[in-house]
Specification:
Layout lengths: L12 H22 L6 H29 L4 H12 L9 H12 L5 H23 L4
Helix pairs in contact: 1-2, 1-4, 1-5, 2-3, 2-4, 3-4, 3-5, 4-5
């Protein structure tokens, strides 16, 4: 069985992990302070940011490197599925990290599951951004 690996440049893990944490932090701040019903936005922000950062460690420390080593794309699609499922609890903060992990894990690969992971991870990050920003107008 042969595997084809693309020569397209793949994003580095440290900047991708940092970017996902920064995007999460910004959107979680919008959600915390934009929610008019929130009595303690700073506490909410710190708790949700801690969850997002805690999610970053296994995603970019274990799952994404594993996905880069395996050619089938199963790890990347699992990350994408988890990102989509976490939209149901987007206010906890893991969605952007999981979505970015799925994008990085599937980027530049030709397997159908990896391409799907990139698309679904992108969809999850966009949905997270939209839901977080909707907190501002409620």
């Amino acid at each position: 069985m042969s595997t084809t690996v693309s020569t397209a440049p793949r994003p580095s893990l440290v900047p991708a992990a940092a970017l996902s944490a920064v995007v999460s932090a910004l959107l979680l701040a919008f959600a915390a302070w934009g929610d008019g019903a929130e009595d303690h936005p700073a506490r909410r922000f710190l708790i949700t940011l801690t969850i997002a950062i805690a999610t970053t460690i296994p995603v970019f420390g274990w799952a994404v490197p594993r996905a880069r080593r395996t050619p089938d794309g199963s790890t990347a699609i699992v990350l994408a599925a988890l990102a989509l499922l976490s939209i149901g609890v987007y206010w906890l903060g893991p969605t952007a990290v999981l979505g970015t992990g799925a994008i990085v894990a599937g980027w530049g690969r030709k397997a159908p599951l990896q391409r799907a992971a990139v698309a679904l991870g992108t969809l999850a990050v966009i949905a997270f951004a939209a839901l977080s920003l909707l907190e501002l107008i409620r």
